[in-house]
Amino acid sequence: VHHSKLDFFCKLGYSKQDICKVLENLGQEALEDDVLKELIRMGSKPQALESQAQPAPPKLIARGSCSTSPVSQWLGGDESDSSSHLRPIVIDGSNVAMSHGNKEVFSCWGIRLAVDWFRERGHTYIKVFVPLWRKEPPRQDSPIADQHILEELEKQSILVYTPSRKVKGKRVVCYDDRYIVKVAYEKDGIIVSNDHYRDLQNENPEWKWFIEQRLLMYSFVSNRFMPPDDPLGRHGPTLNNFLSKKPVLPEPTWQPCPYGKKCTYGNKCKFYHPERPHQAQLSVADELRAKIKVPGGLGKEEEPCTHSP
């Protein structure tokens, strides 16, 4: 009898200690209703109710813990790598070298100046295309200055020679401009050249748009490589936004009102007034309602007042 009652109340969720105490007080032959009343009077609760009454302790997460989501890890890695925001650079080596040599000498030093300028900005992908026959010793009709720079850039995997060969004493040269535009288009990068590539623009409409939007022109001022601050004109992006994949929008600047304190437009004036506090632009009717603050229910429940004579 003791075991049967013990199992019965254990199934109800009460602890064995409380059940044994009640059975000792009431006796082994006590009715189940009496045992249940005594358990309730003692304040004993089933274990299921106790677990519901006690909420689970909150999980504390330390700030800056290593358990971050994949999205935050990706964002953190993207922010740390500043070079990922910069566009690849493809340099027209022949155009840059001849520009630095005043269109008379193939100046390899001009290529080095351009490469160093982009390196200092943090660009990691820089490619320079030069015809292969520039490896040959210089001649009177094609002088080359500082030819050893080409070998140094080739060892650094920056300079790429476009193929050329000789057939029956005549030099057969591949069109290096096509290499330049094609690589820059595939890499979604920037073309550094003063050439407009009009023949390639007419050849492919996609290349036409790309050359118009991604061509970076330059100048050499006292052996200094200087691209313009506005590559696409006065109304175009800045040089930093032009060379980056994620352009930074400038902060809006407030233009002061030309009328000053004599302005009669009030809050509807779109110019900046330093003497006026910043507030929401309300219409005249809304301003009057806010000042008067007439209660909405006034006049609806009015009843004629009867006065005694």
TrEMBL record:
User: Which sequence ranges does the entry mark as zinc finger (C3H1-type)?
Assistant: 251-276
**What Gene3D superfamilies does the record tag this protein with?**
3.40.50.11980
Q: What are the entry keywords?
A: Endonuclease, Hydrolase, Magnesium, Metal-binding, Nuclease, Zinc, Zinc-finger
Q: Which GO terms describe its cellular component?
A: cytoplasmic ribonucleoprotein granule; nucleus
Protein's recorded name: ZC12D ribonuclease
Entry's Gene Ontology molecular function annotations? hydrolase activity; mRNA binding; RNA endonuclease activity; zinc ion binding
The scientific name of the source species is Asarcornis scutulata
Which Pfam families did the record assign? RNase_Zc3h12a, UBA_6
Q: Which domain of life is it from?
A: Eukaryota
- Family to which the UniProt record says this protein belongs: Belongs to the ZC3H12 family.
Q: Which cofactor does it need?
A: Mg(2+)
PROSITE patterns given in the database record: ZF_C3H1
- Give all residue intervals belonging to the C3H1-type domain: 251-276
